[in-house]
Amino acid sequence: MGKIIVFVNQKGGVGKTTSAINIGAYIAKAGKKVLLVDFDSQGNMSSGVGAKKDKPTIYELLAGQCSCEQAVKNTPVENLDAITADTDLSGAAIELVDEENREFFLKKALEPLREKYDFILIDCPPSLGILTLNGLAAADSVIVPMQCEYFALEGITLLLQTVKKVQKSINPKLIIGGIFFTMYDSRTRLAQDVVRQVQAYFKDVVFNTIIPRNIRLSEAPSHGVPICLYDPSCVGAKSYEKLAGEVIRRG
């Protein structure tokens, strides 16, 4: 049975979608079957991985208007599939949710796919709203990308409080799969201090690999491909390859 991992950070611009795409791509290149699930109505993951946003999307799957097989789309990376999203998803919390299953509609939709993939990676919106709660309810583990800045320290405390609440009331099997740093600039003392503080407090939860600032990582989404196809020799690509290896080893 495949492992479901949700990428969560309520702060935007931390590299969450970029990380989900590139970690998924490198896990696929390692020979694992991977499904990326775009659970953000902006649809950035869909664009960044080169998957067509044609119907059906995750919204149609949630609404019962298509099968899992119909919702899954191919990507340019072998072993890597995707379920795309568009602006229709923004209405899902209102149109598809009732009081009894408000946190579980994604979990129910993805359950038939667990047997077909080694890893299912969910990219949630930058918020702690109902879509993110559904991602946490559906997942086995949560991975947190964290930017190396002061306010990120406050944000991660709030996020982990939310995760604890989910563990108590919605998904007791959910674990913290790991925290990793993005957009790291070794030239700044602030970045170094943030890394030291988080490593000291969270210890083994923090991944060893740190993702540096790298312009090639920013360019790749505009070409609709992960970094492994855009510039596999750049420092950003090599860093994500190492991080994907860590994710696989943690299982």
TrEMBL record:
Residue ranges of domain AAA in the record: 3-175
Q: Which InterPro entries match?
A: AAA_dom (IPR025669), DNA_Partitioning_ATPase (IPR050678), P-loop_NTPase (IPR027417)
Output the Pfam families linked to this UniProt entry.
AAA_31 (PF13614)
Name of the protein? Chromosome partitioning protein
Lineage of source species: Bacteria, Pseudomonadati, Spirochaetota, Spirochaetia, Spirochaetales
